[in-house]
Specification:
Two copies of one chain form a homodimer. With about 290 residues, the first copy, chain A, is an all-alpha fold. Chain A contains 15 helices and no strands. Chain A has one domain: Triphosphoribosyl-dephospho-CoA protein (Orthogonal Bundle), CATH 1.10.4200. In chain A, helix 3 runs antiparallel to helix 4 and helix 11 crosses helix 13.
Chain lengths: ~290, ~290
């Protein structure tokens, strides 16, 4: 598969995730925040193309590629951080795609790529973090806002994979790196199972709800607390029990209003959906 | 400007046009047809990237590039013809972008490019037409469904520009080729004038309504008749007289329901909007 083809799978994954509606709390085609809008997500996904293509041709440099993605995305839109979490998953996945000789070796390759990351990757990643101005839980004595952190990373010889190991227990995205992209591939299988019956939009919506019901969203637990994240997951699970798609949709809309009012957005779940959509498209899913 | 940058301006133009809502009769983020959906337009815009990039590096081959666009678009989605009219405008515009040394020479260059088209371009264009299965008014004795047409084009030595001259009087898209992309650049100026006050979505919606009120949409007059197209333009003009954006939006929604029920879609106006958005983004518009 050509680097361009792989990069376009990633672009389209970002488009389909942000378009899927209704989704509780997150930006979608029908919901904007004050400063960040649906169109900012489209522009970010369009803008980042050359970095994705570069990633598909790269054997190393995960940290730098994530940093370049953030920079390129922000040149194309003024809505702030749109896809930082998604890039952390997409960059190694796209690189893995570039290494694959057949569609089925993606999982094996992406696991290799994250394990091969270096101290330099960790340093570049920290730069991207600062640039994207993302809310994160400080990792032990490594504080993102602390300029000395880079010194500490170097002194301790931490690779980017090591960094993810430190936060993997409570952070969904870091957890993907550590646990072989388990949720990502699970998510891809769910979407592909549902697409024929439900169509692309509802397949994404239902998978989003299932993921959310099974996992506390990191973005919510960081912005609020773990209890809030648990509460959101429980309600998502209850909504899915309604069975009928029309009723599920109505309930999501009500839930969405509550979350938007409270400023609660399950952003990390959206990142896993993007990664899962990428895998599906890479494996040849069309609609 | 790099070929990749120019190609991305075209991709984003397609995304922003199809997303803009509400628009009377056309697919947007809130309206699908039975077989063609919003997501098909996103996938088409993502998929066509490499052809757009190739166009930005090309000095000739307009007809072939339009044909390649149709082919590549249809590899990424199963919703049928999404962007044929848009490609007829975008391909020469993107090629012109690749030739430009500064942002202001686009108009001059695009006029040159369409005038330089050849008989071969006309032949390739006819192939694309057949592939895209577009409804068109037969051009004199050149019937698209007639395999002999290619022979006739060659015998008469018609270039693609000559072909556009034949249909330029009643076809908005062909008219752009003949009249120096006048409406495209007008449309770009309108969007850029409105974006600060209204934001990107409403700037596109208002420009769409203005264009529609001033011009009979070719897609409507081909599918129905000129009277129908005139009726739609008149109603669009009346809606704009409401002045207040909230009232305009409500009225568009009502108008939209009527047109969707009747299957009336001003597709050619949407194509001009895409071309206008491309020019705006090429000239540096951000949001």
């Amino acid at each position: 598969m050509s680097p361009s083809h792989i990069a376009r799978c990633a672009q389209l994954a970002m488009m389909l995730e942000v378009s899927a509606t209704p989704k509780p709390g997150n930006i979608d085609r029908d919901h904007n925040y004050c400063d960040t809008r649906f169109e900012h997500f489209l522009a970010s996904a369009v803008g980042v193309y050359p970095i994705l293509e570069k990633a598909a041709r790269s054997d190393s440099g995960v940290g730098e590629l994530i940093d370049l993605s953030v920079t390129e995305s922000s040149k194309w839109q003024r809505g702030g951080n749109t896809h930082f979490g998604a890039f952390i998953l997409l960059i190694p996945l796209v690189m893995a795609g570039g290494r694959c000789e057949n569609k089925r070796c993606l999982k094996e390759q992406v696991q290799k790529i994250v394990k091969e990351t270096t101290v330099e990757d960790a340093v570049e990643f920290y730069r991207a973090f600062t640039r994207a101005r993302v809310k994160v839980k400080p990792v032990d004595d490594l504080d993102i806002s602390d300029i000395d952190s880079i010194g500490k990373i170097k002194a301790q010889g931490l690779t980017l994979f090591n960094m993810m190991e430190i936060s993997g227990s409570y952070d969904m995205i870091a957890g993907e790196w550590v646990n072989g992209f388990e949720k990502t591939f699970e998510c891809s299988a769910m979407i592909q199972n549902k697409i024929r019956k439900y169509g692309i939009n509802d397949a994404v919506v239902l998978t989003f709800m299932e993921l959310l019901s099974r996992n506390n969203d990191t973005f919510i637990s960081t912005k609020f607390n773990v209890n809030k994240a648990e509460e959101v997951s429980m309600r998502a699970g209850k909504i899915l029990l309604k069975g009928d798609m029309d009723r599920i949709r109505d309930e999501i809309r009500q839930f969405d209003e509550v979350l938007l009012n409270e400023g609660v957005n399950p952003g990390s779940t959206a990142d896993i959906i993007i990664a899962g959509l990428f895998v599906s498209l890479f494996e040849g899913m069309r609609f």
